[in-house]
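debug: dumping io for the single-chain case to check the tokenizer round-trip. Nothing else runs in this session.
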Amino acid sequence: MTGFKSVPSDPGRPASALTRRRILQIGALAPLAACSIGGGTPPRKFSLRPQPAIEAAGPSWALGIDPPKALKGLDSERIAYRAGLYDLQYYADADWVDLAPDMLQMVFVRSFQNRTRLAVSGRTVGGTPPDFLLTSLLQDFQADAGKGAQITLVASLSPAGQRRVVRSKTFEANARAADDRIDSVVAAFDEATGRVTNDLIAWTLAMAEEEKRET
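debug: decoded output
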């Protein structure tokens, strides 16, 4: 695997860096960087929490939530770390429990179920379409210099079965980590994701009701 540095055993340290010229090849490089010879200790698996359940009031309609779309560098189980403007790395010996977009989809679905009266599900092909469909683009989902988490999500709400976007908004959150240990970094991801999720829920409810009044 020419061009890769050895992967450190400390899970709080970033794995091999990608050069500026090769940042666009991140999707192809990630699997190679993760390979090992002769096995070894499997990486620790981390997940993010949905927002806890509350006694919900408000409207009741059906919402479908697609997994966020993302570039290959973020469409990965590996936990990304940005050391510089053109320098994206991954933490060694630590992964998400699923591809990051799929993990976030489940966080959103569970959070909407816990915080609203909506009938919420992941989008499926066939069956009864929901009233609205929530799609999104994951632009940022990485640690920032190893001391926090940065999330940028561009969300769009559309009437299901129609090819028009009712509303679109960018949600951003940054959370600092207590230190550079992977456990602290994941806790920062969890905090930032919670902020984005709460804002996303409030915005979705408001935009859907606004659309209903206008149609």
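debug: round-trip ok. Residues 61-73+98-214 form a domain with the Rossmann fold fold (CATH 3.40.50.10610).
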